[in-house]
Amino acid sequence: MRKNIVAGNWKMNNNLQEGLKLAKDLEAALVGKKVNCDVVIGTPFIHLAPVAAAIDTTKIGVAAQNCADKASGAYTGEVSAAMVASTGAKYVILGHSERRAYYGETDAILKEKVLLALANGLTPIFCVGEVLEEREANKQDEIVNSQIKNALFNLSAEEFGKIVIAYEPVWAIGTGKTATSEQAQEMHAFIRGVLAAKYGEKVADETSILYGGSCNAANAKELFDNPDVDGGLIGGASLGVDKFMPIIEAF
Ligand code: PEP
């Protein structure tokens, strides 16, 4: 069966000392708790190695928020998938809408990043989602379908089995405006159908599809209760243990 996952995305928040404290506080809060999901934290690059060394990464997985679309070489300022993997991180968030919007990440670039992440043993948490104008024009299915098709459908079924999808309607990210439980379930079921048509029911059934966009302690349970919602990618509410733990415990 597919896994339930609650993954935090710290974005560009927390200096190293603050990030280490947050990771250790989360680990302490999880002691003695029986949680029904995998827990992941997506930290800035510089936090990856010290955070992975400071916590038990079999209990809290560590994720990068990006990796380069090139394997190695003269790409000043970039961080490769191999470097990410060498820190002890097991995941990489790819295709976040902030990367697409502010750093020009296209489906073609993301396709390369996904391949490099997989080649280095990382699990991509691949983000898809429509902007407000697309939702208002009822184009969300078309947009999400093309994001998945263009960046992921070159993968074999075996490779695709290692992908986690995060549906993040862009209009819901950091806005306090969550998709309704019905909107989330409808899109997650649509995505699962797209995956089934390409890779078959088994692969589709086994793919974890997370919801992201202003998910918090108050709405997590209702969202996660949907049959096709397998957890969340959590931005703002992952920056405090008091806010993140109730989301983890919503399962
Ligand atoms: C995100 O950045 O992936 C996200 C879902 O952010 P927030 O939870 O703050 O909306």
Task: Write a compact overview of the structure shown.
This protein has 251 residues and is of the alpha/beta class. The protein has helices at 16-30, 45-54, 81-86, 97-102, 107-119, 132-136, 140-152, 157-160, 181-199, 201-206, 220-224, 241-248; strands at 5-9, 38-42, 60-64, 91-94, 123-128, 164-167, 209-212, 231-234.
CATH topology: TIM Barrel
In this structure, how is the largest beta sheet organized?
A: 8 strands, parallel, barrel
Strand and helix order: EHEHEHEHHEHHHEHHEHEH
State the CATH class: Alpha Beta
Across the major sheet, the strand order is 1-2-3-4-5-6-7-8
**Could you name the ranges where pLDDT drops below 50 across 5 or more consecutive residues?**
none
What is the distance, rounded to the nearest whole angstrom, between the alpha carbons of the first and last residues? 15 Å
Count of domain modules: 1
The unique ligands bound to this protein are:
phosphoenolpyruvate
Helix content: 40-55%
